[in-house]
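Sequence and fold:
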Amino acid sequence: MIFLQDLGEYDLADENFLDVQSITDAMMTTAQSLTELAIRFFLNLAVCWVIVGLFYYRKSHRRDYYFTFMVFSTAMLMLLYIMGNVEVGVGLTLGLFAIFGVIRYRTETVPIREMTYLFVIIALAAMNGLAPLYRVAGALSDNPHYALNTGALLVTVISNLLVIGLIWFLESDKVTKHTSTKLVLYDRIELIVPERRAELVADLEKRLGLKIDNVEIGHVDFLKDAAFIKVFYTLGHDETGSIDQLTRAKDYVEQ
């Protein structure tokens, strides 16, 4: 060890001078690195599967987004974990994903629910990929080494569980009333007047087979005797209305 009284013998401007920081630096073993990677990978995979599989897919049944969310989360975790250990930093990594996201998702209208889940899994992947799971033990001794930080691991797990709990709470039918809308091109324009609103709702419920909560009258074409009507209704248990807003057949692609 280098004691303070011996520092006068060294040139502090010398690049080869061995400082206290370099003396106490510890290196992770290959086994520790693989263990850390496995912990991060399986923790993130389990959390992402619960959120996407049990909450999102249960209602939407969109396999394309299921695949996207799972792969995106895993790729984000790996990139942040690897790039976080080099000099380029996390900022460049997040910037790359932002560029990829703009290039891909700007060409398609992504529903707000899907965008919310996408941001959630990105945030969790960043947290699981950058959380300090190992700490330096024995830094002031002759044998500095890395050891698993059980406290940090516990905080990371609890943070993931809190996000899962919040999503479960908000997705619960007992808490949130899930509503959707349909855009209908309606042919009986004599019923769109306010005094015949009850007849209009009854006719729409009979045709659509839905319990309607409210209706809004849009564009009216008296030449064609048609009007656009926006119908609001409550979704049933485990139902979703992901294509209700589509008005053209070419916008619909069966998943």
In short: Confidence is low (pLDDT under 50) at residues 1-13, 15-24, 247-255. Helices lie at 20-24, 30-60, 63-83, 89-105, 112-130, 150-171, 197-208. The chain has seven helices and five strands.
